[in-house]
Amino acid sequence: MSLLISVNNLTRRYGDFCAVNNISFELAAGDILGFLGPNGAGKSSTMQMLSGNLAPTLGEISINGVDLLENPKAAKASLGYLPENPPLYKEMTVTEYLQFCGRLHQLEKSALDSACDSAIDRCGLSDVRNRLIRNLSKGYQQRVGIAQAILHSPPVIILDEPTVGLDPIQILEIRDLIKTLGKTHGIILCTHILPEVQAVCTRVQIINQGEIVYSADMDDMLSKQSSKFEITLMENVSVEKLANHHVFKSIEMIDDFSFTAESDLTADKLSEYIVQQQWGLTRFAPYQTSLEQVFIDLTTGDKETLEDNAA
C-alpha cells in the first residue's frame, strides 16, 4: 500500500506547555485510522498540524510524498479536511457552496459540475442541493461539510467528529460512506464516540498527555485472546477462598456468584480445574476486550501507571 501520511517526531509547545510530545505514525491507502484521546490530550493540535493550520515546534509531516512545511500548497492539495465546526458559508445554497469550494481547489471548469454532483450524491444531499445552507438542519449541514472535504477526491481525508448532530439513520449512512471512502483513500477519524471507531476503523491510535500510548489494528485488538476470564458459580465462594487457589493470578468480584480472573492456564485447563472443585460452574467465557475498556485503562491514572499499561 502507498504511504499517504508520514509523521516523524512531531512536537507542539505552547510556551512551557507541551501539547504534543514527539509523536510518529503513518497512514496508508485503505487505512481508516481512529485517532482518540481525552479532552486536552493533544488531538486537536495534532489535527491542526496535519492540516497545515498550525505550525509544529519540531518534527516533519509528509502528505502523499510532499513535505507539508516545505511545500504546503502542494501537500494540502492532497488533503480533505472536515473540522469539528464545518466551514460553511450559510448564505449560499449547497450547490453554490460546493462550486465555490471546487474553484478554491482549482478544479477545471469541465470537471466542476460532475465533482459537485458526485459529492452531493455520495453525501445524500440531492433533495436539498438548491436550499440555503442556513435553512438546513445541523445534520444536513454536517453532510455539506463532508461533501466539501471529499469534493476534489483527495487521497487523504481528515474527519473531526463527522457525525455530531446526526440522527441514528444518518449516522449509519455516514459510517457506510466512510467505509466506502476508506477503500480508496486514507482516512483519519477523530471522534469521542468509541462505538463509531469500532464500527468503521481498521486501526486505532490513542493519544494521552501529548503522547501516543496505544496503536493497534482493530481486528487484532478485538480478536486478541486474553488471559482474563468471566466466571459464574452456583456456590457463593469468597474472594479469600478463591485467592487460595493459585491458578488465579488476580480476582475481581462482580457479585456474590460472579467474578473475573486472570490465569496462566488455558481456557480448557482452567474450566476443568474449576469443575473439579465442585463449585457449580454455570458460566465460563474469555473476557472480551473492548475499545472502551482499552481507552479507559490507558487514559486514567497517573503517568507512571499509563506507561506500565502501554508497555
Number of helices: 12
Counting DSSP E segments of at least 2 residues, the number of strands comes to 14
Kindly give the count of domains. 2
Return the string of H and E elements: EEEHEEHEHHHEHEHEEHEHEEHEHH
Question: Main β-sheet: number of strands, strand sense, barrel status?
Answer: 6 strands, mixed
**Percent of residues in helical segments?**
25-40%
Q: What structural class do helix, strand and pairing data support?
A: alpha/beta
- CATH topology (level 3) name of the largest domain: Rossmann fold
Strand content: 25-35%
Rg, nearest Å = 24 Å
Q: Find the CATH superfamily of the largest domain.
A: P-loop containing nucleotide triphosphate hydrolases
Distance between the termini: 28 Å
Q: Which CATH first-tier class of the largest domain would you pick?
A: Alpha Beta
State mean pLDDT (0 to 100 scale).
89
- What is the level-2 CATH architecture name of the largest domain? 3-Layer(aba) Sandwich
| Biggest sheet, spatial arrangement of strands | 6-7-8-3-9-10
Shape: elongated
Low-confidence stretches: 303-311
